[in-house]
Amino acid sequence: MFHLPITSLKAQFGDIDIYLFDQLLKGRIQKGMKLLDAGCGYGRNIQYLMQAEIKVYGVDASTEAIDRVQQLAKELAPTLPARNFVQADLEQLPFADEEFDVVLCSAVLHFARSEFHFRSMVQELWRVLKPGGMLFCRFSTTIGLEGKLQQLEGRFYRMSHGPVWFLADEALILDLEQQLGAERLEPLKTVLVEQERSMTTWVVRK
Question: Coiled-coil region(s) at which residues (predicted)?
Fold first, then answer.
């Protein structure tokens, strides 16, 4: 029997988020689906998806990031048009309503400028998602670190590594779910990182 070397995992899957990989294993991202990575960065979460015949789109506020992702797509999935990857802000996505089967947003929402901005970004992600589609978000929260972070004004906190982040709590996430009419597909999963920050994975269906 032929066995793939374990070193091939990195080449195949890149630096995909382990919780996103879990959604692949559960069959929630399938060949032929139309998927948006909102805040795609350099494409770490879509390297494998590009090669798996997913119709991948990406937006990022950084033109450098979009240039890098367009080049990545050219190398890994030449049939994906460069126009699938565009510079844009998450609160004003350049896509039609209900366009995507899956919307990803990893390590972006805690950079919100206000609670209104945070909610606006989530509402835009929801707007472009098809009914029955999956929204996958991973972002820093206060969950598990209540009372242990340096709170500034409102929901802003000084993180131990220096920057100021907007941190949602569980109540805000629940409020958003009710407002959107979202169906939770997974329990909230929060990882504490050295008691310095917590990263919460939020997976819901429209």
Answer: none
Contact 116, 149 (CB under 8 A): no
Structure tokens at 197: 């920050």
Q: Which residues of 130-143 are buried (b: 16+ CB within 10 A; e: fewer)?
A: beebbbbbbbbbbb
- Per residue in 67-77, pLDDT tens? 999 999 999 99
Cα–Cα distance list, 8 to 3, 30, 137 (Å): 11, 22, 27
Q: Which helix (H) or strand (E) holds 166?
A: strand 164-166
SS3 state at 11: helix
Characterize the bridge pairing of strands 197-205 and 183-184.
antiparallel
What does the block give as tokens for 121?
């970004």
Which residues lie closer than 8 Å to 114 by C-beta, 6 or more apart? 154, 166
Asked if residue 65 lies in contact with residue 73, where contact means CB atoms within 8 angstroms, the answer is: no
The pTM is what?
0.93
Q: How confident is the model at residue 91 (pLDDT cuts 50, 70, 90)?
A: very high
Alpha-carbon distance of 75 to 48, in angstroms, equals: 12
Domains in the chain: boundaries? 8-205
Fold entry, domain 8-205: Rossmann fold (3.40.50)
- Alpha carbon distances (Å) from 62 to 67, 71, 170: 9, 14, 29
